Amino acid sequence: xxxxxxxxxxxxxxxxxxxxxxxxxxxxxxxxxxxxxxxxxxxxxxxxxxxxxxxxxxxxxxxxxxxxxxxxxxxxxxxxxxxxxxxxxxxxxxxxxxxxxxxxxxxxxxxxxxxxxxxxxxxxxxxxxxxxxxxxxxxxxxxxxxxxxxxxxxxxxxxxxxxxxxxxxxxxxxxxxxxxxxxxxxxxxxxxxxxxxxxxxxxxxxxxxxxxxxxxxxxxxxxxxxxxxxxxxxxxxxxxxxxxxxxxxxxxxxxxxxxxxxxxxxxxxxxxxxxxxxxxxxxxxxxxxxxxxxxxxxxxxxxxxxxxxxxxxxxxxxxxxxxxxxxxxxxxxxxxxxxxxxxxxxxxxxxxxxxxxxxxxxxxxxxxxxxxxxxxxxxxxxxxxxxxxxxxxxxxxxxxxxxxxxxxxxxxxxxxxxxxxxxxxxxxxxxxxxxxxxxxxxxxxxxxxxxxxxxxxxxxxxxxxxxxxxxxxxxxxxxxxxxxxxxxxxxxxxxxxxxxxxxxxxxxxxxxxxxxxxxxxxxxxxxxxxxxxxxxxxxxxxxxxxxxxx
Length: 550
Hints:
- Helices cover 41% and strands 15% of the residues.
- It is an alpha/beta fold and 550 residues long.
- Strands 1, 2, 3, 4, 5, 6 and 13 form a 7-stranded mixed β-sheet that branches. It has a 6-stranded mixed β-sheet with strand order 7-8-9-10-11-12, with helices on one face.
- Strand 5 (341-351) and strand 6 form a beta hairpin.
- Helix 1 (5-18) packs parallel to helix 3 (45-63), helix 3 (45-63) crosses helix 5 and helix 9 runs antiparallel to helix 11 (212-233).
- The mean pLDDT is 90.
């Protein structure tokens, strides 16, 4: 009987190794090849698709195991993600087989299908940007572990992200996987290894697995991508922007939830160190929710409950009398009276040296179970998947705030903020440069949940793509790490330590001049044209099949 489980599991392991902690990115170019043997394996449907699913389970179980580190209850979330997400692998195999039966080489079928499903995973079920005008969008989805992210260190290749986002890089990597599968599967050595008999299919319906034009196309895709990248990397030196300082504490999440003395004293010490440093900084950035006090505010035109109004006056007075030597971006919770009640937001608050608000950004892409319980009102048992024993739900924000910043030498800048895993959603970052572009981006995050696991490195690797897609530098302030500066070519140019590994689970400040880039990027203008084009191609192939059967 043909082997199907061994190659599926092998692909799951190889793809996992392409990401952190091993970070063997070159494996991404052929990790899917064993799994693609399922396209033509002469086995039953049940066996074929169960093997496809198993490969996905192995990959996601290994890749996302850091989720369980956050809290004992997060084992359930890890299990749920491991069971549900591999369904996309089953759907991918079904669609690729449909292409294959119509004579489409794997060189083209694999990238078209894989990119479409990455986009689906990023936004499913109601996170799609085109739902926003209808008022039914709720940002959702899991945007980690795209094929393109395996190449975060391959700077010449990933420059194409400013044309089609990380999806463009995924397309190239998937095309190479498909081309290799087309080349390798007919080999007699591979056939014996897979236990294929003489009548097992090795070719697509086109009659050949290795059309010359497919090889030429994949070579053109690779060469063109690399040539574009080398050209983009040859540019004048970046202009100097403001000096910005990020605070990085090393506070575990259980201490942070309690708002313990460790949280307060650690970040107060870092704040004082940042303001005493030479040269003087223009902006100090705190990580997500690491400022222990909440911000209270009453929306314009609203009449708040008297007790809430009293708390608001008292809290804002406390901010006004505190010590703020420089403009400061605080990561904190906001309690805002609007629509007749108080709502909780996960916010970034910019205050001036007088403690007055210059702007507030509220996180839009909330983390399921971490910041709200999906369908919690309808299905109360869903709260068992959360790490909290109380109601903690946040309300999502609705506006991309452009924060103003004026330096000591009277230069004016603007910046946008992404909170926590919002930097894993390409559709968010690009909005800051699509219209009224900001000068740079800030990412504040609390990764104290994950206690030095590979999550820290993978999060930083993902953020590199947002810098390239927008052609804007990103300043990161992350509790427990990894803080730093990413320039608009995707280079990590400042860290707390000498290496990525030594930059996590350490207390430090990172101070750097923000490198400014005036290049335009097509991705914010064109949006997710590539996954949408792939989706259209898949739809056409499916419709043609249905019409022919009719």
